[in-house]
């Protein structure tokens, strides 16, 4: 296990290099000059050129990329063009908010999704099964920003039960977490139902029923554990999707998280901030995938970690 984890961590290096390269090249296509934005629209040409030289923007793109990668390996993500603060400092301020939102959303995704999937699988082709699958289909198809605005309208504007925007208490967290977790819960519900139906048809489940075990023990102790492998995959991927989905949700609910920070940085053509934010988000996503692979081994001892 230890050797496998070390090998996977080493494999992350080329992935991160690729992420940096893709973001770096895309940002070169974005209109605008960071030096002009930093100097101001009325700045002289000499001032702009001096700032470009200080930022290294007058160097060839290949050299800029190599220099940035070298800085990253030293732990330096650069300085924000917009705020003149270290990128790592701004990210560490915003990142905990995004992680809290993602964890709350994934909790809703797992609890609602697996509960709905288990109920649907234990009562296949009944009215409850059909109703759950219809709701899951609606949840998958519903845009997160539309759901967020709808929840704000009913629970904040009309009923005055929850705050419209901001962050700080569980009340602020509730609506954004539901907005992010709904589509994921629908996907997990469909996957749990499919996996549970496959497991329930196995011979050892029929044997357990023949021995007189209670349905609750059969479902939660025997069937669910063996049905979790594909569900874990979906949950791991959904965590990455949630990190990306926070960009829209944080904008809708005016949450100062990592997603909103990246959006503001793109608007201001703050290249160091965009690269640093995307790099951190990608690193978290890769680490989550590593955790998912390790959990495979925990839930199914027959799986070999190659």
UniProtKB/TrEMBL annotation:
Residues that span the membrane, as ranges: 12-30, 91-118, 130-154, 174-192, 227-253, 273-296
Gene Ontology CC terms: plasma membrane
Stretch forming the signal peptide: none
Subcellular location(s) of the protein: Cell membrane
Keyword Nucleus: no
A single GO molecular function term of this UniProt record: dipeptide transmembrane transporter activity
Membrane topology, record value: Multi-pass membrane protein
InterPro entries reported for this sequence: BPD_transp_1_N (IPR045621), MetI-like (IPR000515), MetI-like_sf (IPR035906)
ABC transmembrane type-1 domain mapped to chain residues: 95-296
UniProt xrefs under Gene3D superfamilies: MetI-like (1.10.3720.10)
Entry similarity comment: Belongs to the binding-protein-dependent transport system permease family.
Entry protein name: ABC transporter permease
Organism: Paenibacillus contaminans
């Amino acid at each position: 296990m230890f050797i496998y984890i070390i090998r996977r961590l080493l494999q992350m290096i080329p992935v991160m290099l690729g992420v940096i390269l893709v973001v770096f090249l895309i940002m070169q296509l974005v209109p605008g000059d960071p030096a002009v934005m930093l100097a101001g629209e009325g700045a002289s040409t000499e001032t702009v050129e001096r700032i470009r030289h200080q930022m290294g923007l007058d160097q060839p793109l290949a050299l800029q990329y190599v220099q940035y990668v070298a800085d990253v390996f030293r732990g330096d993500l650069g300085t924000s063009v917009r705020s003149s603060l270290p990128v790592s400092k701004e990210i560490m301020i915003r990142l905990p908010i995004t992680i809290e939102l993602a964890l709350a959303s994934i909790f809703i995704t797992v609890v609602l999704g697996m509960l709905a999937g288990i109920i649907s699988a234990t009562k296949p082709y009944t009215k409850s099964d059909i109703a759950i699958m219809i709701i899951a289909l609606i949840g998958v198809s519903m845009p997160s920003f539309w759901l967020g605005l709808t929840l704000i309208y009913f629970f904040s504007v009309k009923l005055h039960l929850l705050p419209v925007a901001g962050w700080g208490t569980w009340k602020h967290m509730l609506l954004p977490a539901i907005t992010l977790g709904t589509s994921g819960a629908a996907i997990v519900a469909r996957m749990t139902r499919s996996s549970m139906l496959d497991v329930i048809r196995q011979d050892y489940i029929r044997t357990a029923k023949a021995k007189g075990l209670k349905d609750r023990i059969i479902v939660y102790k025997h069937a669910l554990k063996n049905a979790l492998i594909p569900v874990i995959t979906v949950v791991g991927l959904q965590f990455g999707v949630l990190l990306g989905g926070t960009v829209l949700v944080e904008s809708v609910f005016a949450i100062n998280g990592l997603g909103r920070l990246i959006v503001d940085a793109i608007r201001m053509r703050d290249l160091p901030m965009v690269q640093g934010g995307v790099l951190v988000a990608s690193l978290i996503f890769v680490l989550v995938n590593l955790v998912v692979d390790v959990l495979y081994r925990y839930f199914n001892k027959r799986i070999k970690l190659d």
